[in-house]
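Forwarding the complex inputs:
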Amino acid sequence: EAEVAQSPRYKITEKSQAVAFWCDPISGHATLYWYRQILGQGPELLVQFQDESVVDDSQLPKDRFSAERLKGVDSTLKIQPAELGDSAMYLCASSLESGTGGRNEQFFGPGTRLTVL
Amino acid sequence: AQRVTQPEKLLSVFKGAPVELKCNYSYSGSPELFWYVQYSRQRLQLLLRHISRESIKGFTADLNKGETSFHLKKPFAQEEDSAMYYCALRFASGTYKYIFGTGTRLKVLA
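Prediction (whole assembly, two chains):
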């Protein structure tokens, strides 16, 4: 069964360093989401792609975070420089499409747990 | 502003007892509500959505627009139901967006 892949699974870094996370969605899924989940909270949407275009990045801290999905397939989320408050689980999800109906079901990856020291 | 509230961080019930996980939302339009579940060491996954009006693993959830609630219910809890449950609201704002609640951990005791 096809799954969303993410790497690395765990990342420990020092503040002010740069970090990058990678996500490979399920093949054929046009919509890709990056979420941040702080311990004890629910996932918070950071950025949403439709194919290679960003359709929502209203919650992305753009002074330090960037995301790209150059060929409309896999995606990279980068943080530079990392801050202590960035410690969280970073989840990637994908769906066939983003409209109404069953084709919008999100499938989540295992996440990348980031610890900033 | 849109909001999803799950008032209980932890809910413990005995096996065979009824379960109700509460979810309230704030949204002025027509909402789409979902329940997601995360079992230990597994990925977050969709459990059910209100438009399907179906029962999954014995769980049901009814959208009550008057009370702005979407509580998750199961008449007889099983140990394998122990997991983290998240309620989510999907709404249109330019594109379709999701807001998740803070989650409720369900522990089913033997």
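Chain B is about 0% helix and 50% strand.
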